Please model this.
Amino acid sequence: MKEIILIVEIIFLDFARKSFKFPISNNIRTSFWLLDSDISTFSELQLVDEEFDIWMKQLASLRIVERDFLKEKLNVGGEFKLGVFPKEIAFGRIIDIKFLPPV
Model:
């Protein structure tokens, strides 16, 4: 399977406190979905500079698996949600997209 790395701006919502103790300094595995989608995929969020905290716009790296429903829908500036679908713990915007070769 091909992996995609998204560089994103992300903001955690208050609801995330039910799942995590903030601030967070480790990677987070959760579901990823686009705003107009009713399908999600696995993701791993990796912090770039500092700890994750509530209501702070932060830069992060988001690893996802390339899936058919994402083809032609991922684009720079696109918005997404993270959480346990359909309950969101964070929302964000794509800054850059890197497609990795299959492993």
Summary: Residues 76 and 94 are 5 Å apart (CA to CA). The chain has a mean pLDDT of 89. The first strand starts at residue 3 and ends at 12.
